[in-house]
Amino acid sequence: MLNYYLTLILGLLLASQLFAQNEPIPDYDFNHKIPVEQLREDFVFYISLLEKHHPGLFKYQTEKEWEEFLLASSAQINCAMTEHDFFSIISKVNAKIRCGHSYIKPSATHHYFRDTKLKLFPIDIKVIEGKIIIEENFSEFPFETGSEILAINGIKATKLMGELKKHVPSDGFSETGKHHELDNWFWLYYSFQYGYPQIFSISYSKPESAEVVKIFVPGVAREDFFKEENQTPITFQLLDKPNNESIGYLKINNFINGNEVKFKKELERIFRNLNKSQTAQLIVDLRGNTGGRDIYGAELFAYLTQKPFNYYDELLLKKPSKKYLKWYHKLKFNITPKDDEFYNYTSHQNLNLIQPKAANFSGMVYFLIDGGTFSAATELSTIAYAQERGVFIGEATGGGLSGNSSGFSVLENLPNSNIGVSIPAIWHQMAIGDLQETKAGLNPHYLVKPTVSDLVEQRDAVLDFTLQLIQNNNTTVSKNAGKFLVE
Predict the structure, then answer these.
(1) What contacts 98, CB < 8 A, 6 or more positions away?
(2) What gap in Å lies between CA 228 and CA 225, rounded to an integer?
(3) Regions in the chain scoring below 50 on pLDDT
């Protein structure tokens, strides 16, 4: 259950590899205009796929709101336009669903042309308190980390942020999820809205300065700032505590590991060693964990609880399609009708009552979360929160509290523009009991927002706060404990 940008980068890499093996570079006319009739055909086809297959289409909107948005969007398709201009329209339709697992991507030839021929915004940013803050600079101009971007090409930052967010898919009304996406893919969403200018006029102010500086910088090639990161899925260490006790620190970067046996063995090894060390406190860091295999979340929680638990209440999908679902054979014999619209998918191990592991941890648990905590990582967080199994610190998750649309996906290219779409087919309803839906992710017990000075000084404010909390022996908290929220 990967979110948008993880799936997108896989598509980028595959497209690049495809064309690298089939030189010469394919011809692509960026300014070629597709006839309006063909664009309308693509639009109708895309909407029909969504309405036929997406199980959470009306989870966060009414049918009337959806219809009104579609009418306004279709009205913009009133003339021939380039693939990029058409993509800019339907990317907002994709975001309107409010599903972080739904995505669209430009055609493979557009991907390749962009990554080899076009210039892109040369700065990685961090959204802090709604402001665009410079985190890493790839231009030749010496921007300081922590500087605030006030305008780009004459568009003020507040307006720019508002326009870019219209393209960003996220679960429900999650602002932290959108901010995390922009932290990682600002240049991409900027191109969705504003295209590919050769030169960027940037107005900014340095850290702790009111002076506004305006500078012109050229865009950079994708290869100049693309960094392929191979994160270790799990890391564990013991942190020293002043009174000679130790604190377990378990960092779960993702749940993507395809080797299930290896993943399970690693968890078992960690928790056996954790219990052997007689550590009373454990920090589980899920920040930036955008998900992966949902069974891994349940596997981890089985080490954090001392009683049997339910993970999913139910899995719902619309009538599966042999034409579009690669795993149709797995669905066909494992569904039962629920009502006139939905089927129950019954063959998933997370639907069973799950037993705690023999090496389970009985001490105090502190979960660190943020807008990058998504999909399977949010599912784990939700179950732990509903079971009152620990204290949550940081910012609201990017994933939806009650569940998400993910799992098997409908994959298709629109017939005329060749824009790719991916539509998750299964709604995963979490077993959260009477936990109240927020429609904007799981809120922490303690709200800790990193500041510009934290960024500049490379300080982990959330972890520091957690260690101080442990030092003060704060070990009890109940669910929905809004009174504990701190800035």
Answers:
(1) 59, 60, 61, 169, 170, 171, 172, 173
(2) 10
(3) 2-22, 477-487
